[in-house]
Design brief:
By secondary structure, the chain is mainly alpha-helical. Helix content is 59%, strand content 0%. It has two domains: 99 residues, Endonuclease Iii, domain 2 (Orthogonal Bundle); 108 residues, Hypothetical protein, domain 2 (Endonuclease III, domain 1, Orthogonal Bundle). Helix 1 crosses helix 12, helix 2 runs antiparallel to helix 9 and helix 8 packs across helix 9. The protein is globular. It starts with 14 loop residues before the first helix and ends with a helix. The model has no long low-confidence stretch (mean pLDDT 94). The structure holds iron/sulfur cluster (SF4). Iron/sulfur cluster (SF4) binds next to helix 10 and helix 13.
Length: 231
């Protein structure tokens, strides 16, 4: 179902910039994405769907241990062998198929040495056409593996900024992506840093049960204000 758009998104000042400054002050620079090379980032972007990063690390370690963290090797792997290696990441049969489809596309397209020259919109469209690659996964790859200026919207982003009161939280992916990209000057570096900070904050502070007393954003947070309103 198409989500209703939010006409207030562009009319509320530079909320993303403010939040970025406060999060940077609280958490410092984030060293992201945790991976040894670009292909590992892409594999991680698929394996991290619906699971914690610690599980992804185990799956990637298994692939490395089997000397299979290469696109051509993954394409040739038997589906059950691949599924067992990535089992720690959950939904392993589904993800094995997604990984194999992605690697097949990646190899056929010429790998990084070819894809690096594709314009961002062409590359994004192609990624979105690969089985199992949705907007968040595609944008993780574009931002962190290809260093393209696209902002990643994830569940942490929706939770934190909905609590702050700057978004509703149920807007369409592309609407939120456009709003963040519009606000954040500096392109790729700022996008990569803010997304990493959002993930850190969503995991450590603005959790499902939020730790508002330890939050650098509580002075600008609608959720916090409502909670602490005198009755
Ligand atoms: S004040 Fe609380 S609800 Fe608001 S962003 Fe911080 S942790 Fe989340």
């Amino acid at each position: 179902m198409r989500k209703a758009s939010n006409p207030n998104l562009h009319a509320r000042g530079r909320w993303a910039v403010r939040a970025h400054a406060a999060l940077l002050e609280q958490h410092g620079q984030q060293d992201w994405w945790p991976a040894e090379d670009r292909f590992e980032i892409m594999v991680g972007a698929i394996l991290t769907q619906n699971t914690a990063w610690t599980n992804v690390e185990k799956a990637i370690a298994n692939l490395k241990g089997a000397d299979m963290l290469r696109a051509d090797t993954i394409v040739q792997a038997a589906p059950d062998v691949l599924a067992q290696l990535i089992r720690p990441s959950g939904y392993f049969n589904v993800k094995a198929r997604r990984l194999a489809c992605f690697c097949d596309w990646y190899v056929r397209a010429g790998g990084y040495q070819t894809l690096r020259y594709w314009p961002t919109q062409r590359l994004r469209k192609a990624l979105l056409g690969v089985h199992g690659v949705g907007p968040e996964t595609a944008d993780d790859m574009l931002l962190y593996a290809f260093h393209r200026p696209v902002f990643v919207i994830d569940a942490y982003t929706r939770r934190i900024f909905a609590r702050l009161g700057t978004i509703r939280g149920d807007e369409a992916y592309e609407e939120l992506r456009a709003a963040f990209e519009h606000q954040l000057a500096g392109g790729t570096r700022n996008f990569a840093q803010l997304h990493a900070l959002i993930v850190r904050h969503g995991k450590d502070v603005c959790r499902p049960a939020p730790r508002c007393g330890a939050c650098c954003l509580n002075a600008i947070c609608r959720f916090y204000r409502h909670r602490h309103q005198p009755v």
